[in-house]
Amino acid sequence: MESEALQWRKWYMDEKAESVELPRAFKDCSLFHRLLLLRAMRPDRLTGALIQYVIEWLGVEYIE
After folding, report:
1. String of DSSP letters for the chain
2. Which are the contacts of 23, defined by CB distance < 8 A and separation ≥ 6?
């Protein structure tokens, strides 16, 4: 993370961090790992990411 500090800061400061692409080193991580990052660094954006996760794995009917 230190080597990409500016990119991480940009991601962290983004209003919708759950939908913005992660910095290069973490670009290919799974949606579950992305949830873990959000939980650790941006818990305020976790709800939107959890909705995306449920839609992808279970389907839209589980959030309606």
Report:
1. -GGGHHHHHHHHH-TTTTTSPPPGGGTT--HHHHHHHHHHH-GGGHHHHHHHHHHHHT-GGGT-
2. 1, 4, 7, 8, 11
Q: What is the pLDDT of residues 16-53, one digit of tens each?
A: 989 889 988 888 888 899 999 999 999 999 998 999 99
For residue 32, give the nearest of 48, 7, 50 by alpha carbon.
Answer: 50
Contact partners, residue 33, CB within 8 Å, separation at least 6: 26
Residue for token digits 């080193």? Answer: 25
